[in-house]
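Re: beginner question about structure tokens

> Can someone show what the tokenized structure looks like for a real chain? I only ever see the sequence side.

Sure, here's an example I had lying around. Input first:
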Amino acid sequence: MAEKLHEQLQAELIAARNICDAVDKAGREFTNDERQQIEGHMTAAKALKDKIKAAKDDQAMRKMLIDLGEGIALNEQERGPAVQPGRGKSVGEQFLESAEFKAWMKQIAPQGRIPDALKGLQSPPVEFKHLFKTLVVGASDTSAGAFVETDYTGIYEPLGRHPTNVLGLISRRSTDSDVVEFVRQTAQVTQSTPVQEANVTTYAASTGEIEGKKPEGAATWEKVTANVKTIAVWIPATKRALADASQLRGLLDQELREDCLEELEDQIINGDGTGENFTGIINATGVLTQAWNTDLITTTRKAITAVRVTGKARGPLAWAMNPSDAETVDLLKDGDNRYYWGGPVSAGTRNLWGYPIVENNQVDQGKAILGQWDKAVYWDRQAATISVSDSHSDFFIRNMIAILCELRGAFGLIRPSNFVIVDMESGT
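And the corresponding structure tokens:
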């Protein structure tokens, strides 16, 4: 019977699936008739599944009765004349009639009577095979498992996020305005030259006359405006969930803050300047570039020259590169198959040409940024803050709240030429 029910259940599910496959293949919505057909198949399938479960339960009950009665006389014919009608042998009767007990009695009381002088008697163990027919197991909730208490450790391990280490490299300042302005020099004084001493009071450009006039210097500047942008994210939650799991609120707050900071770092590096995006280092005007040249060693060394000579960077430099490119640097070997930077057992700060490497997942693989990072500034208008409200949509009447995290700030390069974007692969 169970096998037939399984075949009927399979037929109903296949029929429903065939309708869904036909609709998906046609790339359209379900018709009302198709919806009714699917509902009919699913209703029939549920009824068949209930019947299968009932059949399995009946079969299990029969098996349990057989198992529990194994070795025990359940009727007069099975019990035979040696057993009184209405009951089987008790545990005491089975013990006294056991071969182990009878052999022991013959040994200590061959005449059928235990001598008074014998003290400290102990009978031999007797095995009762059918005393506990049902196996006591620890994995079952209906057996010993019912007494096992769960050890709630309180450990919570999130999925993890990439470190926001570039935020620790750049300059951090604060602002009370929605617009930040700073002045950046576009041309510097380059007119200095040796000058002879004047030998006339009135210079007429006659032969032998020396005017002694000093050259006038010239410099140009530009005003740069950086608008404060908002980075935000929110998540819905029920008041009951937060009340029942008090630690959940703290976990959500942390998750939202870290998401905002991760986006902030991505904007600082990759922002394209459109809409509400920052103009990140990669897309900033005036940032230098170093194309691939011969090999990685040559290319990165030329990048240092560019930022020192063309960019006139005077402060400490550092590399920001994707972990995959950092791995490539670590695995570089010379002609004798020796690691350039000491190999896996070397100690100390990882560096390339003497400048530290900072791994950052926001930097695209195949590109690296070498720069004097204090020339990049983030103005903090509002630190990442958490706010909660039930005024969103119909949350008030549904006992729900919105947990919002947002930060506000502006970003700019006060000297773009102190940064160089480096090709870490041929063709990039």
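Each token stands for a local structural state, so reading them left to right follows the chain. The mean pLDDT is 82.
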